[in-house]
Amino acid sequence: MNTIREAITRAHREEWARIVASLTRRFGDLDIAEEAAAEAFATAVQRWPTDGVPPNPGAWLTTTANRQAIDRIRRESKRDDKHRKAQVFHDDPPESLGAIDDDRLRLVFTCCHPALAMETRVALTLRMVAGLTMPEIARAFLVAESAMGQRITRAKAKIKAARIPYRVPSAEDLPARVSGVLAVLYLVFNEGYLATGPDTDPVRHELTGEAIRLTRLIRVLLPDDGEVAGLLALMLLIEARRPARVSPGGELVALGEQDRGAWNAELIAEGHRLVRERLAAGVAPGRYQILAAINAVHTSARDMRDTDWSQVLALYDQLVRLDPSPIVALNRAIAVAELDGPEVALAAVDRLEHRLAAYHAYHATRADLLRRLGRGQESRAAYDRAIDLAGNTAETAYLTRRRDQLLP
């Protein structure tokens, strides 16, 4: 029985996006595609323990899902032309699985269409492409399952009403649309890497894992896109540090205090390889590639003291030219502190106050710099503000300990 359950789980992980994408192309309806795919897997749960796992699980599930979709169309059909349309679908044999990779890419671009709100794009991608259940997605967003169900239903209705095309964008639109897809995947990853909800696990491995899996899928489908490779490398190098990020007591462990022997060497090697490949390509790097390179420097150092901070700062200087956001400037200031001292870095951080006053990491960074300068009272006030704004339980515990270590 465990073998059957594992086979169904593996098939769901490997085939869900293929099946939903194939059904969406064939029937032109995300709702029908999602329901039929779910019913096909439910049928597998019922039948495979008795009949055994079919030789080609993906083909079996695709055929079953197609039949479920046609049955639904027939049930809902009130006009002869719809019935004839269903008959045509029924008589048309399913394509081989190898032919629908482009369908998966179309599905991703549909779910990440800019006409949808960013939060909706994330939820729809998790449901339609990753195959997460409604309760899983609702937990990720810390909302009721019914509310999440309504959100996804409205998104699918909007796609149908607005006639959002089920296709890969044209050549001139592709770069901007790919960046939108990557932004969705990065949001999914970041919510898992540092969960914002106070009543959830501080690190959500199921979300970081799904983000990496979906980025791998995009990498297969768009193998020459440098930013796709960069985002995958970035995720892998951050995920590699996950085993050392939270202490047994549930407190966030800062990069300098982590047990580097606990880092995942296999993920680091893969991330470094992707970074080297992009450097060898000789093409000007994008934002994700530079962030990946910064993380490659950090994960190359055996100890925090061995970090090549001059290289980190040079990469941040390059990143600032592409992304002059206050958060990038804040992270650059941390490298400045290691090279030029906390006083120079604090001056740079203080210039960001009007833009980052509501951002907990701004106050946490400022608190640490003030601590290093021996300005305990000001540091304590900055820690208090960071604790008030932080939503992650492990991070709150870390900041509280650092504050409480300050001398009166």
UniProtKB/TrEMBL annotation:
Question: Which superkingdom does the taxonomy of this entry point to?
Answer: Bacteria
Q: Which UniProt keywords apply?
A: Sigma factor, Transcription, Transcription regulation
One Pfam family name is DUF6596
User: Which GO MF terms does the UniProt record name?
Assistant: DNA binding; sigma factor activity
- Residues annotated as domain RNA polymerase sigma-70 region: 19-78
The residue ranges of the DUF6596 domain are: 177-277
Chain segments annotated as coiled-coil in the UniProt record: none
State the Gene Ontology BP annotations: DNA-templated transcription initiation
Q: RNA polymerase sigma factor 70 region 4 type domain spans which residues?
A: 109-159
Which InterPro entries does the annotation name?
Answer: DUF6596, RNA_pol_sigma70_r2, RNA_pol_sigma70_r4_t2, RNA_pol_sigma_r2, RNA_pol_sigma_r3/r4-like, TPR-like_helical_dom_sf, WH-like_DNA-bd_sf
What does the sequence similarity comment in the record state about its family?
A: Belongs to the sigma-70 factor family. ECF subfamily.
Q: Identify this protein by name.
A: RNA polymerase sigma-70 factor (ECF subfamily)
Q: Which organism is it from?
A: Streptosporangium saharense
